[in-house]
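Incident review: delayed structure delivery

Summary: a single-chain prediction request sat in the queue longer than the usual turnaround. Root cause was a stuck worker, restarted by the on-call engineer. No data loss occurred. The affected request and its eventual output are reproduced below so the record is complete for anyone auditing the incident later.

Affected input:
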Amino acid sequence: MTETLTIRLPAAHRRILRARADATGKTESQVVRDLLETHLAARGTIAERAGRFFGRLEIEPAERDRDAWRAHLHRANWRA
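Output delivered after worker restart:
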């Protein structure tokens, strides 16, 4: 069974949606359904999905003193 959902979009979003539909040969409704299906299929919390990117950067003081980029990373790292 299908149901109807009405949403309000800014004009700019509607233009983008219409362009995507035209480019893919789909209806605007099908593009929205595809986007929702992709988004809703994502499993887990954002922390779980981004977990592999968490870590700690260890920079030795001697390296930090010789390398401006490492010094910048050290200053920007709130955990340091």
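Verification: Residues 11-42 form one domain.
Action items: add queue-age alerting; document worker restart procedure.
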